[in-house]
Amino acid sequence: MTTFRDLLLINNRNYELSNDSPLDQWFSGVVDIPIDQLDVGDIARSIRQDVFLADVLPRAEALLKDDPLAGDDYDGQLISSIASLNRDEIKEALPCFLRIASYLSQLNKNGFDRQMIMDIEKIIKLSQV
After folding, report:
1. DSSP per residue over 105-126, as a string?
2. Is 98:129 a contact under the CB 8 Å cutoff?
């Protein structure tokens, strides 16, 4: 099971524990957890921070298929994080991003709040490049 530390080593990068910022503290806490065991909040944060996007988006896809409203802090947190990506960021994970967009386009959005619908529409639009 692959961890962020494994991915750092594959990319010839060394990681030294640091607690200088909340982001450093978070990363130190998840660096040795297998990606497929990271929770929704950690996956959402990884996406927002563009941390090994090609490796975390498949986990996001699985979480969304289990619960389209997935979120630790609020409903739709995962969709919101994916919607924060830009064209350059999705290039490395395009096949998975396209699958996520396709899945989201097929959802019955009744009951979703306005922001979540806007985030889904942004993801779908971004996938059409």
Report:
1. HTS--TT--HHHHHHHHHHHHH
2. no
